[in-house]
What we know:
56% of the residues lie in helices and 0% in strands. It is mainly alpha-helical.
Amino acid sequence: IGPKATEVATALNLDTVEDLANYKYFKWARALATLAETEVAGDRPEGSMMNVNKMVDKAYETKTLKEIVEAPAAALQGLSDAAGELLDDLGVKTIGELATFKYCRWAEAIVVAAQYEEVGTEAERKVAREQKALQ
């Protein structure tokens, strides 16, 4: 990703592609952004119980999902201001930008695709298929 991104990943304790794919704050940001797409202004039923209070800092608990997505990344509960500044250095200023951060999305895609990867080279797989056919 580059020296700056490597520095940020180290500071955020993201050691592997899988760590980046499963970065809690990326997952939260994606969930919030996806839910914000469904939000209709002023259409929250009276007495609704669902909330995202454990995902966001206290100051954002009463905000709409669309407002939360536009909030600084550090508005995610537990993401420090220092971590927010590190993300900012990578161009990730808001929760919405974290939700679509290409490196997290690429890492997530790699992790999913790896579950369906065949092991070995094509030549090794060919030998294995031929041996299986002889059995």
